[in-house]
Design brief:
Order of helices and strands: HHHHHEHEEEHHHHHHHH
Number of helices: 14
Structural class: mainly alpha
Strand order of the largest sheet: 1-2-4-3
Distance between the termini: 38 Å
Number of domains: 1
Helix content: over 70%
Oligomer: single chain
Shape: globular
Largest sheet: 4 strands, mixed
Number of strands: 4
Radius of gyration: 23 Å
Length: about 425
């Protein structure tokens, strides 16, 4: 059994690496065929940025594979045994959180390289080392505190019910919903400083837009995201009465009010179509399958690992194998998401004007150095948004891409 699991994980790792290699080769080849949506210098920078990030991702994937083999090869059993002298519940929490913290610390250098090498090279990083350390410590503390609470509840469920996997699924889904409800508030408390958008024409237009679509929020806020990053972004967070609109200060600086309204119209399109609830349902289906699987693993697997089917071992296996399941479910999620993006674009163009949404998308691509093209295989496994050139064409913007012999044709033109 363990041989089969390692074989499946190995296939997953090599497929990820293959997709990355194809994406890098595709970008390096097509960037020589002429710039798309950008000037030649910007286009070259966007290509270089995308390739650098993909190479770093490949290195992360390789380390992830080594860590998996080490955990499965004995580290999981050793950590469980090392904590045996503690109480059963502390042993469970210590083992599961130990795995999470150890993996996070070992992967931390990649986050540093991404921010202080790659992002800095391409003009995105504005964070200091002190801010990076502060954010990392805060994230770790929150993960340990809330993670320990979740592990404690799941452990209680496992030890008290034969169908623990079904009750655990229900509990974890409630956690997922709670995170979606309170994420904006938590982010504002511990990471970004948000302030209410000042009264004025922009606020009036946004409020008018929300009234038109029936979107009721707890407020419109501006995040000081520029202290960390130069990218443009905005998000609608929360569920029910916790919903709020958060605009990055960088977005307000770079887009005109009309373009900003078109972008928010796109986001309100997601709200109008219930996309958040569709995403939660998709996550729920994936988690249900995972819990059903791990609730019925054969005893031989635990025997081969040299461990007992204790709550901590079950949860550690779940964490280690979740990326594999997520990777192979991602294409289905991606197809749904890309369809939703086209629909949200349609709504954004109706609410804010197609011309303004087109101009906003072009600015976002340029300012965020988002390479506008990708290999079909990469798009199939990784992307939740259609290529921006396809989105612009759907909005009526005529754009030519010299992509002959590059295999660019969209395999899912109607998604």
């Amino acid at each position: 059994m363990i041989t089969t699991i390692i074989a499946v994980y190995t296939f997953y790792i090599f497929l990820r690496l293959y997709v990355s290699v194809m994406q890098i080769g595709y970008i390096n080849q097509i960037k020589r065929k002429g710039a798309v949506l950008m000037g030649e210098r910007e286009y070259s920078d966007a290509a270089g940025y995308a390739v650098a990030k993909e190479k770093l991702s490949m290195a992360e994937t390789f380390v992830e594979y080594i860590l998996f083999l080490v955990w499965m090869g004995g580290l999981m059993a050793w950590l469980d045994t090392a904590l045996f002298s503690t109480s059963p519940m502390m042993q469970t929490i210590g083992a599961v959180m130990g795995l999470i913290v150890i993996n996070s610390l070992l992967m931390l250098p990649f986050g540093w390289v991404a921010k202080f090498k790659i992002d800095a090279q391409y003009g995105f990083n504005r964070s200091t080392m002190g801010q990076f350390i502060k954010d990392t410590l805060m994230s770790t503390i929150l993960t340990v505190l809330f993670g320990s609470l979740v592990v404690w509840v799941v452990a209680l469920i496992i030890t008290s019910s034969d169908v623990w996997w079904l009750w655990s699924f229900g509990f974890i889904m409630s956690v997922v919903i709670a995170i979606n409800m309170f994420f904006p508030t938590i982010r504002a408390l511990f990471f970004d400083k948000v302030t209410p958008l000042e009264n004025g024409e922009l606020r009036e237009k946004i409020e008018e837009l929300m009234t038109k679509t029936g979107f009721v929020s707890s407020g419109i806020f501006v995040s000081d995201a520029s202290k960390r990053d130069a990218r443009l972004n905005a998000y609608f967070g929360g569920i029910g009465k916790t919903k709020r609109v958060v605009l990055f200060d960088t977005l307000i600086q770079k887009l005109t009010p009309a373009e900003l309204i078109a972008v928010l119209g796109h986001e309100l399109g997601h709200f109008a179509h219930g996309d958040l609830y569709k995403n939660i349902a998709m996550v729920g289906a994936m988690l249900f399958g995972m819990f059903a699987l791990f609730g019925n693993l054969p005893e031989t697997l635990y025997m081969e690992l040299g461990v007992s089917p204790s709550p901590q071992i079950i949860m550690m296996l779940f964490i280690l194998l979740l990326p594999v399941v997520s990777f192979f479910i991602m294409p289905l999620f991606g197809m749904m998401s890309r369809h939703n993006e086209y629909e949200a674009d349609r709504t954004g163009s109706e609410l804010g004007g197609a011309e303004h949404l087109v101009n906003a998308l072009k600015k976002l691509v340029s300012e965020n150095k988002s390479f506008p093209l990708s290999h079909p295989l990469y798009r199939f496994f990784h992307t939740t948004h259609p290529p921006v050139v396809d989105r612009l064409r759907a909005l009526g913007y005529n754009i030519h891409v010299n992509d002959s012999d590059e295999g660019y044709a969209d395999p899912c033109p109607n998604d």
